[in-house]
Design goal:
Layout: E1 5-12, H1 14-17, H2 29-42, E2 46-54, H3 64-74, E3 80-83, H4 86-89, H5 93-107, E4 110-113, E5 118-119, H6 126-156, E6 169-171, E7 179-181, H7 183-197, H8 202-211, H9 217-223, H10 241-248, E8 257-259, E9 262-264, E10 272-274, E11 281-283, H11 293-307, E12 322-324, E13 332-335, E14 341-344, E15 359-361, H12 362-378, H13 383-389, H14 396-430, H15 435-472, H16 476-482, H17 491-497, E16 498-503, E17 515-519
Parallel strand pairs: 1-2, 1-3, 3-4, 12-16
Antiparallel strand pairs: 4-5, 6-7, 8-11, 9-10, 13-14, 14-15, 16-17
């Protein structure tokens, strides 16, 4: 049909790039565009726009051009969507049903993919499109498992699989998975380790680098045209405390490959979550070290010494428990000429343009905590009543086991509903059930699956909270006795009672510093 406006959609994913031969370019963006343009012109269609997503999987719902295409389709800017194959548009069964068989007909959009002969104007090949959707869904799962297996093997063999090399290194162009030293950046890494070994603090080192105009790792990579993780929002180009802190404990700098600190939640999302250290992949001696072992050992020894608890009244009392109310960074300690310890925002002195946030003496903060604890005790003079009000778990192990069983049950049911949806789909394709029956049954299954997935998230949160309480201990009576009529704090009490403390900037004209205490109960 003439005078129809067509939106051409092309997609190139990472798996398309890993060809056995350089001449195998059948899936290249350029080839897709050429093929689809010729087809559209042959049909007499007017090309409205070409939407092209590069380096995106068929399960990624956040493809920018894909979403632009859907927007234009919904607003009736196009009449036809043209792809090379249905899988270029999506590999998800859910999206096939939602758009190709659901919304596109409502919007008056015709969907055509030329290689697998999918055409919504041809009612006879609907079952073929549905089977394509089911096969692509299975392909996603199988591909995810295969990729995970390959990546695990590469990690176990000490091969670097990340998209970005660590600051101080770059990817070896001659050997895939191998890192080589970037000498310009490596000099800064050596300087940081040396300065720390000589007694300079992490904030002081950051300030030295900023005063000299040394770009931080992200800015360095940007300036040198190296691949780096694009920040979601514009970030500072300054060195900060945590950039130095993370560098000083990274084993990659002594030639060990450390990977797998984060793991994906699902093959359908790019969301990652931290993994416990015992699940990391650490392989020694995979590349040339920047830092020699003697310097490394000296730095680790100094870090360990600084991490040990201090006596009552010194910074160790609130180590890693206080945050700047302004920028969220954990406060660091410094010792003033009067001999007293103070807590301040670590970014406060890295540059003149940095945060001008929290600053408080340890003594003042300790008194603020004691005052609030004693006030809580005074409001609950009856210790038995106070004990009932403090919400500590009584039978943590029983609760943990119960939640674990519930979590397993939810996950098992989710797998059953997922299987049920697929079997319903096959029944619909075979004609065993009608379209309306499929919509009704699959809708119920999907709703229940969504409900169970939400329960999984909530149950995992509850388990994490219980784990935290188990680590802190459940000595209710002892804790209550400790924080009744206190005069001094110790590190044990702080660990058991306090999650974290937010400290703000001193209120002008007063000695008052805003303090917000987040308790563990």
């Amino acid at each position: 049909m003439a005078n129809l406006k067509v939106g051409i959609y092309c997609r190139l994913s990472e798996e398309d790039r890993n060809k056995q031969s350089e001449t195998d370019d059948s899936n290249s963006i350029q080839n897709q565009k050429s093929m689809l343009i010729q087809y559209a012109l042959g049909q007499g269609w007017e090309i409205y726009n070409i939407y092209s997503d590069d380096d995106y999987t068929g399960a990624d719902r956040n493809r920018p051009e894909f979403n632009k295409l859907l927007f234009d389709a919904e607003h009736k800017k196009i009449d036809v969507i043209l792809c090379k194959t249905q899988s270029r548009f999506t590999r998800e069964l859910e999206l096939v049903e939602k758009y190709i068989h659901g919304l596109f007909p409502l919007w008056g959009i015709r969907f055509v993919s030329i290689v697998d002969n999918a055409d919504t104007a041809n009612k006879g090949n609907k079952k073929s499109r549905q089977i394509n959707g089911l096969v692509n869904e299975w392909y996603l799962e199988d591909m995810s498992e295969n990729i995970r297996s390959v990546l695990t093997n590469r990690r176990q063999n000490g091969l670097h699989i990340g998209a970005f090399a660590l600051y101080g290194y770059k990817k070896d162009p001659e050997k895939k998975g191998h890192l080589i030293i970037d000498e310009e950046a490596a000099e800064i890494v050596r300087e940081v380790f040396t300065l720390f070994s000589q007694g300079h603090g992490k904030t002081a080192i950051a300030k030295m680098l900023n005063d000299r105009g040394v770009p931080n790792p992200t800015e360095y990579k940007r300036l040198h045209g190296l691949r780096y993780q694009q920040p979601k929002k514009k970030q500072s180009t300054l060195w900060k405390y945590y950039a130095i802190s993370d560098m000083l404990v990274n084993e990659i700098y002594i030639g060990n490959m450390v990977q797998g600190k984060y793991g994906s939640v699902s093959y359908k999302t790019k969301q990652n979550k931290p993994r416990p250290k015992d699940q990391w992949y650490i392989v020694e001696g995979t590349h040339e070290p920047i830092i020699d072992r003697d310097l490394w050992d000296k730095v680790q020894s100094l870090i360990e010494q600084k991490a040990k608890p201090f006596i009552v009244g010194e910074i160790g009392l609130f180590a890693k428990k206080t945050r700047c109310m302004n920028c969220g960074y954990i406060l660091r300690s410094n010792k003033q000429t009067d001999g007293r310890r103070y807590l301040c925002c670590p970014t406060r002195h890295v540059s003149k343009d940095a945060c001008e946030g929290a600053f408080i003496s340890v003594t003042q903060l300790e008194q603020a905590v004691i005052n609030e604890l004693n006030q809580m005790s005074a409001e609950n003079l009856d210790k038995d009543e106070l004990e009932r009000k403090v919400e500590f778990c009584i039978n943590l192990n029983e609760q943990k086991d119960k939640l674990g069983r519930e979590l397993h049950s939810y996950q098992k049911k989710i797998a059953e509903y997922t299987k049920g949806i697929r079997e319903l789909y096959l029944d619909k394709v075979k004609g065993v059930i009608t379209e309306s029956e499929y919509v009704e049954f699959s809708g119920d299954f999907s709703a229940e699956k969504d409900r169970l997935e939400n329960l999984v998230v909530e149950t995992e949160k509850q388990l994490a909270a219980i784990e935290k309480k188990m680590q802190a201990g459940d000595n209710r009576r002892q804790l209550i006795e400790q924080y009744t009529n206190l005069e001094k704090l110790d590190r044990e009490i702080v660990d058991k009672l306090i999650d974290y403390i937010e400290v703000g900037k001193r209120i002008p004209g007063t000695r008052k510093v805003p303090v917000n205490i987040h308790w563990n109960f």
